[in-house]
Fold each of these.
Amino acid sequence: MSEATSYRIEAMGERKGLLKALQRQQERIKYDEVMAEREGILKHEEDVNQKAVWNENLEEASHRRRLRDNIDLMTTETKLYGKALVEVRRAALRQLLQRDSDCYEKELHAQGKTFYSKRT
């Protein structure tokens, strides 16, 4: 074999090695791209899950706050109801006492008598 022919065979052998190295490099790049895409998907899912957890916690806190506010409102309404009930009873008692007083005054007036009242 001549020197040119052997060089050509050796050069072709080197090209095959370069082609294999280039192919391996392209495969690594594709693998890295696939892994980067999977990591992106995983990060997105983690973000979505984190937001869902935050939303659930906010809903629970809001529900507890609403319950506490309703309890406070019912307590206030109960106190106001009690005060209103006392005022209604007092008004009814005043009316009853006034009617009794008027009745006694009429009876005394019929007898020609009156209640003692001090003049000032």
Amino acid sequence: VDCNVCSWSSLNQYLLATGHDDGSFAIWDMREIAKSSKNGQKEVNDLNSVAHFTWHKQAITSLEWHPKDDSMLATSSADDTIVLWDLATEADTDTIRKEESPAVPGQLMFIHQGQKDIKELHWHHQIPGCVVSTASDGFNV
């Protein structure tokens, strides 16, 4: 899967988010890179994402960590949606039976629709929860 965009967390130096062509995004913990010594040479083991989300129907066009909350992330997609995510939230396993699969991920907090051809988004650094986005039909705050 091709990676279109990436964003380092400004609060956790080891967290990286990547957005992909298939509409998914992943969270990577750089501390998971384990180095081992083999014949005096260092090798880096394969890195696996610590979380992977598939919600958007088309390619991720932008993503960004919240500047003040290390569990919040915003994504935009070629499917003309912007989604706010809270990665600290988990599904309530007491109310979901094993054979049921929640239609909406527990981490999905808000979906914004109405713009066409969304290109990028950015969090406001002083107003919590405020996101600006640019698209072919203008910008939204």
Amino acid sequence: CAPACLLHVCAGGAAAAAAAAGEQHDDTAAAAPQASDELGSLLVLTSKHKLKSFAFSPAGGAKGSLGQLALGLSNNSVEVVDVREGSYESGSRLELQGHRSDVRCLALSSDDTQLLSGSNAGCKLWDPMTGSCLGSIDTGYALCCVFAPGNRHALVGTKEGAIQLVDVGACTVLHSEQAHAGAVWSLALLPDKSGFVSGSADKTIRFWTWTVTTVQQQDAAVAADAAAAAAAAGKKSKDGKKGQEDEATPAAAAGGVVVQQLGFNQTRVLEMADDVLCVRVSPDGRLLAASLLDATIKVYYVDSLKFFLSLYGHKLPVLTMDISSDSTLLVTGSADKNIKVWGLDFGDCHKSTFAHQDTITAVAFVRDTHYAFSVSKDRTLKYWDLDRFEMLLEMPGHHAEVWALALSSYGDFVITGSHDRSLRRWERSSEPFFVEEEKERRLESLFEADLEQQQQRAQREAGGLVL
């Protein structure tokens, strides 16, 4: 295009000089050259996604092609196209298996062999050991997810208020129930594996039980056999064997496979005074904790739904919480950047800690311990000892807000999901670490950051004085 631009500029300059000299051409006025005078449209390429960038190579490609185009698309993929005379064809595609939007929820199976992640475009199933994507599931805007007992099914709560039952092996949605009138913010399994609990923005907590229904599905092989039997019966009827036709017709009509399908039914509803942001059931199955939009935590007895405790202290709503394996401690993380540890016997606050520099989005206890992990919008993952009430490790790594956290059954690895569309796996190493050394390292980094800020401030002030 450069020669055309140069030609345009030169032609425009000559026309201006001629006008200045007073030359007039009444019949044929000299028009400025256009790009269409030198360039002609060969073909138009279309794509399902927005085009962010491209690169053209006139050499290479298949035989008979005029060149190749590399297209950078908005869905984080690169497509290489072979351009021909009047047509084009896609040569190859480079794309990542991950999410195209921020990861909002994570769930690990009980045996730690499968990972389910959800975003506003649906859910994806992963192998947490290899990091390979096993499949994608179209569920809508997923806000929370959990594996059902047996790890063959999973539950997904959506922004539209639906709870969807997913077949993990087939990566399909078996059943979708419009359970709530608002967004489903939290799902929690009952310890006896009889059902689960859901909390929603419609100010209700609903209890659900598992059901098994018998469904008759038409199998392709069985249908073919039934059609063949019907054809054979028709042939025999022409030969006068009407009795055999009558016997074959019911068999053809009954062609199908009887399968048992998992489902769920609602049993109880607990009305709340405000939006429910998180629900948790204690491992002993005795207590139900629910965090509300008014920054309080309400605790009820599971069997009778009788009120037990009301926990006050957070200045902003509690977005996440978890109960220890011995059902004695409740840890809460809030938008006020604090982590609080509560005793579930009397509802007293054992400790309140300024934990992160931004909103805390997820906390989880390590099984059979009082160690816990927390993630926040400040892009960090932190490891806590909640008996001593001190931070053990701080692990930065994400490039945007961390929304979700999934902890393995034995606490040997943690998976985090972020707004930067990535999943990160953090493994427990065999290297020993010392808490005092970690504290000194954090203090040194804070001191260096503060010193750098002071130097930048001094440079700005000096520059202002000069100006």
